Amino acid sequence: MNADVIVLGAGIAGLAAAHRLARRGRKVLVLEARGRVGGRILTQAAPGLVAPIELGPEFVHGGDAFLRAALRRAKLRLKPARHDMWRRGPDGLQRQAAYWQDITRMAQAISAGTAMTFAACLRRQKHWTPEERSGLIEFVESFNAAEADRISARSVRESHGGLEGTQSRTIKGYQVLADSFAHELAKLGGVIQLRTVVTQVKWRRGQVEVMAGGRRYRGAQLVSTLPLGVWRSGSVKFAPRLKPKEKLMRQVGWGQVARVTFRFADDFWRSGLVPAALLKAGRPAFGFFIGIGEDFETWWAPSPTEPLLVGWTGRPRVKALLKLSDAQIKARALRSLARLWRVPLAELRGRLRGAWTHNWLQDPFTRGAYSYPLAGREEAGRRLGEPVAHTLFFAGEATADEAATVHGALSSGIRAADEILALK
After folding, report:
1. What is the pLDDT along the chain (424 residues), one digit of tens a residue?
2. Which residues pair with 415 in a beta bridge?
């Protein structure tokens, strides 16, 4: 099958690129290894629940114009996410009134031009207590799925220098956005071919040939949106090799996360298991609660009306956790919750009605969660996204100015499409 442009991957970056190209009259073919669109967007529905179960991204960060426009086209409404932060202390769960202000103050104290790691910069901020310092490291590592002694301090400044009040959620789930792009693309004449595992890209200036399952696909240009973990693995081979890109991809951090969503019995919020402080704070819209040192150190309730809790960790130790089975990961998460709330594990288990997780590290079409900038290599992601010979173009969150976000991935797809459209 021939096309003007072949797009590798039907995640949000690939869909955005294909949609923009098709709107301008290009014949576009999207090759997707999975049996669905969305990539790292993965929303599931559960009988009896209104709220979506997000196994990938959940939050809408900031006010990116491209993402907001796409959400409007998809008729996907947003709801604000509460930002109160709670922490387990000697006297129970306590609200951290200055938590987000401390994050902002820490980030703004980082020099704009530094090439240091976050850990090194934090050591220079002498006014934090050991407990506060530990909490800041925990936040940055978990939020960014990064190692404090590797992540760029400058990127922390840029990402968290004014974080409070910037997050919301989609009411129906991010999958609606991906499906909307796919539907619009089909109406424009674009083709998405699912269950097509690409193994090789042969190219020369103005011509590409893609091999997948014994079939050949030809085009004039190619947009690769391969996740960084897949690209690094070498499962898709470029001929000739892209040696400068191979070097750059090692200069971008690649993070891992574990996320579990629990559904409890309908009477959960009245069961006596939930700490009274959280109930007084506005059950269950209490924001986030954390427990440093737990397997799953961050928790929140994604719905204001339903008995759902999400457990999250993105710290370096998550790599060991992700070697376990899904059942073992869920069990570890439930034990973390029981310890945090200081309630009997058996009682929590008795009210459990469902549990969901997805191991992105073990997923062969992702091999990880999302990227982060390494200290001294802040430009590597941008350079990874630069075109090659007016023929190969690159998108995906790892190439975006705002990596590790849906809006970053979407914007990168639009950028790659515009680079093709600008060719003479």
Report:
1. 899 999 999 999 999 999 999 999 999 999 999 999 999 999 999 999 999 999 999 999 877 899 999 999 999 999 998 888 999 876 778 888 899 999 999 999 999 999 999 999 999 999 999 989 999 999 999 999 999 999 999 999 998 876 555 689 999 999 999 999 999 999 999 999 999 999 999 999 999 999 999 999 999 999 999 999 999 999 999 999 999 999 999 999 999 999 999 999 999 988 999 988 888 776 656 789 998 889 999 999 999 889 999 999 999 999 999 999 999 999 999 999 999 999 999 999 999 999 999 999 999 999 999 999 999 999 999 999 999 999 999 999 999 999 999 999 999 999 999 999 999 7
2. none
Was domain 5-41+174-253+374-421 assigned CATH 3.50.50.60? yes
| Cα–Cα distance measured from residue 296 to residue 319, given in angstroms and rounded to the nearest whole number | 13
Whether 59 and 167 have beta carbons less than 8 Å apart is answered as yes
Q: Where in the chain is the domain with CATH 1.10.405?
A: 85-160
DSSP code string of 224-282: E---HHHHHHTSSEEES--HHHHHHHTTEEEE--EEEEEEE-TTGGGSS-S-HHHHHTT
Output the six-digit token pair for 306.
Answer: 């339903």
- CATH of region 85-160: 1.10.405
* CA-based radius of gyration for the chain: 22
Q: What angle in degrees, to the nearest 10, is found between the helix axes of 153-160 and 130-144?
A: 80
